[in-house]
Amino acid sequence: MMKKKLILSFFLAALGFGVVKAQDLPDKKETLKTVTKVNDYFMKKYADYRTPSFVKNVTRPSNIWTRGVYYEGLMALYSVYPRDDYYKYAVDWSNYHEWGFRNGTTTRNADDYCASQTYIDLYNICPDPERIRKVKANIDMLVNTPQVNDWWWIDAIQMGMPVFAKL
Asked: Measured between alpha carbons, how far is 129 from 123 in angstroms, rounded to an integer?
């Protein structure tokens, strides 16, 4: 008898979940308007892409994860809303850093090579091999060495793994 009640309860609960309506997505135009407004604010506030990042009382170069994740998002926005100023901002940042990383092409730290995501996206728009030369050198080093414990913190998956997939 208990088993039948349990099965009936499970069945009724499953029916109840089927009635729940999914949340409607926001309007695409409104979303784009909000995203561009936020991005334009960032680009105005940090108009000088060379300015180092200052997080938790530590100054860091602008080509590590603290800006790398921003440029990753900027390139995603550019893919759906290609504005020349977005492209120029990303290219100028990349050129300033010579398409490279804080600790060179032998870095194992995903904080450093997160910038590769943007370099690869820009290469896909304009396939100049110089844009990914350092990316390839760094990733070749990573995959051709026996060390496998580089990503010991959760953010490293978001910063490092896409580089391998994009490349």
From this structure: 7
Identify whether the C-beta of residue 119 lies closer than 8 Å to the C-beta of residue 132: yes
Report the predicted TM-score, pTM, of the whole model to 2 decimal places: 0.84
Taking the C-alpha atoms of residue 140 and residue 24, their distance in angstroms, rounded to an integer, is: 44
Contact between 119 and 135 (Cβ < 8 Å): yes
Cα torsion 73, 74, 78, 79 to 10°: value is -20
Residue 60's DSSP bridge partners are 53
Between 3.30.70.360, 1.50.10.10, 3.90.180.10, 3.50.30.60, what CATH number should domain 35-166 receive? 1.50.10.10
pLDDT for 119-128, tens place per residue?
Answer: 999 999 999 9
What are phi and psi for residue 82, nearest 5 degrees?
-75, 95
User: Distance between CA 26 and CA 10 in Å, rounded?
Assistant: 33
